[in-house]
Design brief:
mainly alpha; 2 strands
Length: 172
C-alpha cells in the first residue's frame, strides 16, 4: 500500500467520484467509459473497495435509491487522500499479457492452436485499437486533453501489440 493508504483501484474510484456522487454500478460504468482502454477494474474490486473507503471516511454514503442502490460521495478527506496519491511515485508497470505468456510456450502448441492464438489476439487488438482511437478523438474534440493523452497510451499499446504479433514465430 502506498503512503496515501489507498491502492490504485481505490484511488481510481476516488478520482471518478470527483465527477459527483455515484453508485457502485455507476462507478463501474464510469470506469469502463473512462479508464478501460488502459486500466482494468472488475465489479468485485469496485464493490470490495467502496465499504473500505467509507470506513476510512474517504467517501460517505447517500440515501439508498431504487433497488437499494447506494450512492457514494467524495469527502474532503477523500479529496486530500486522492491528491496525496497523485503526488506519489506510480511505481513500475506490471505487464501481464496472456498471449505473450502462451507464446512463451509456443513450442508446446499445435500449429492450429498457435494459429488460433494469433488470430484471436489480432482480432482483439485491432478492435481495441479502433475503440481507443475513437475515444481519444472524442476526448480531444471535447477538450479533455488529459483523458485524450491517457487514451493515446492505449492506442500506442495496441499498435505495438499488433506489430509484435506480426513478428512472432509461427512455429513449424
Amino acid at each position: 500500500m502506498a503512503e496515501s493508504g489507498v491502492n490504485p483501484t481505490a484511488a481510481a474510484l476516488l478520482g471518478l467520484l470527483h465527477e459527483g456522487p455515484m453508485t457502485g454500478g455507476q462507478l463501474m460504468a464510469a470506469a469502463e467509459r473512462r479508464l478501460a482502454p488502459y486500466w482494468s477494474m472488475t465489479r468485485s474490486q469496485v464493490y470490495r473497495e467502496l465499504p473500505v473507503l467509507a470506513e476510512k471516511g474517504l467517501v460517505r454514503l447517500g440515501k439508498p435509491g431504487p433497488r437499494m442502490s447506494q450512492p457514494y460521495a467524495l469527502t474532503a478527506a477523500g479529496k486530500r487522500t486522492f491528491s496525496r496519491w497523485l503526488a506519489e511515485d506510480p511505481g513500475r508497470d506490471t505487464i501481464r499479457n496472456p498471449t505473450a505468456l502462451r507464446i512463451a510456450f509456443g513450442d508446446l502448441h499445435s500449429p492450429s492452436q498457435l494459429k488460433n492464438l494469433y488470430a484471436s489476439a489480432n482480432e482483439y487488438h485491432s478492435e481495441a485499437l479502433a475503440a481507443a482511437r475513437e475515444q481519444a478523438k472524442n476526448a480531444k474534440k471535447e477538450g479533455e486533453a488529459y483523458d485524450a493523452s491517457a487514451l493515446e497510451f492505449a492506442v500506442a499499446y495496441h499498435k505495438a501489440a499488433l506489430s509484435w504479433l506480426k513478428s512472432a514465430p509461427v512455429g513449424g
